[in-house]
Amino acid sequence: MPGAIRIELLPARLGDCLLVECLREDGRPWRMLIDGGPPDTWPLLEARLRRMPADDQAIDVAVITHIDSDHIGGMIPLLSSDLASRIGDVWFNGRTHLPGDQGRARSIDQGETVVSTLTGGARPGLAAGKMAGGPLPWNTAFGGGAIDTAAPAGVVEVSIPGGPTITVVSPTLTQLHKLGAAWLKVVAQAQREERPLPQPDVLEPLTDLQALASRPTVKDTSVANGSSIAVLVEHRGASAVLSGDAFGPVLAAGLAGIAKARGLKRLEVDAFKLPHHGSQANVTGALLATAPAGNYLVSSNGDVFHHPDDIALARVVTGAPSPPALWFNYRNARTERWADPALTGRYGHTAHFPDPAQPDAGVVLELPVRTG
């Protein structure tokens, strides 16, 4: 019997590139690709997609969570390639979806495409973001409109016949307003892909996780991060929060709104992809308390910004109702400390890494069917 949800975190360096499959007993799985990592992830992503079964190569939804080079870099060549014909719908908030005069100034019908929006206009070597049969389908599950929570702590659901139920957790309309005001600047910054050179990673001893977890929370002020599309995916009783780089308070409000609508005090989930690669600015105690999970996933090799932050993971390990499992798509000096037997023995958590025999495969979490 197949499981419920399979989440594959490809090794996308400092970025996100997730392949999510909602499995069914009969028929092909429903698939969602979330982000494409930075530009140098594209060859790996392309190879992975071309390894899909010859008789089943559909990608039902491709999600571009937000405009940032470590999320869109591998998506641009994908949407400009022959593989784009496999995609059923692209979920992405482009300029045309943003509130205010800027957003109303253009429309998809006037020729705007996903790729031209991502790049600020088609560049040499890139197609116009169209398939042979016409423009890429864009936010069709939302009537072609914006993807947001509709209101503070609102609940917007998409139910896939025979597949998952997907609930939008972020962004809010407020965050889209902010993106609209800074659109040109955000796109230009994403195109430049200006990143500091990797610096030596100074690792603190993980001796007192309670003390680490209680350190003051910094605030993420990135307009792009705040506009991230984040979703709750539920299928056959299993559930996963896939959060992009969304703000902790926005995620907490969205998840609390879902819990309230269901008459719950909190929304317990099976898996939670930590926002912003495990940054302490986004992984807050309030967020973790709103939607505690059994499994927490981190997508980052830590070579530039040294994610995941120890403070963030300390909050995860010490704040979970029961000892969680940590899933890393890279094994390195920063992440392997969380598998130290002395640490796991003290706090009870477990740590999981990619198969060393398949260094290009990332890490895979398979969630079982849950009944009752």
Taking strands numbered 1, 2, ... along the chain, how are they ordered across the largest sheet?
8-9-10-11-12-13-14-15
DSSP summary: helix tally = 14
**Mean pLDDT, nearest integer?**
89
Q: What level of helicity do the residues show?
A: 25-40%
Task: Note the run of SSEs as H and E.
Answer: EEEHEHHEHHEEEEHHHHEEHEHEHEHHEE
Please give the domain count: 1
> Which regions are unreliable across 5 or more consecutive residues at pLDDT < 50?
101-111, 122-133
Multimerization status: single chain
What fraction of residues sit in β-strands?
15-25%
- SSE class: alpha/beta
Instruction: Write down the Rg.
Output: 19 Å
CATH architecture: 4-Layer Sandwich
The CATH topology assignment is: Metallo-beta-lactamase, Chain A
CATH superfamily: Ribonuclease Z/Hydroxyacylglutathione hydrolase-like
| Cα-to-Cα separation, first versus last residue | 17 Å
Reading off the top of the CATH hierarchy, the class is best stated as: Alpha Beta
Shape, per Cα inertia axes: globular
The main β sheet shows up as: 8 strands, mixed
The number of strands is 16
InterPro entries: Competence_DNA_uptake (IPR052159), Metallo-B-lactamas (IPR001279), RibonucZ/Hydroxyglut_hydro (IPR036866)
Protein name: Metallo-beta-lactamase superfamily protein
Domain Metallo-beta-lactamase: 32-78
Organism: Humibacillus xanthopallidus
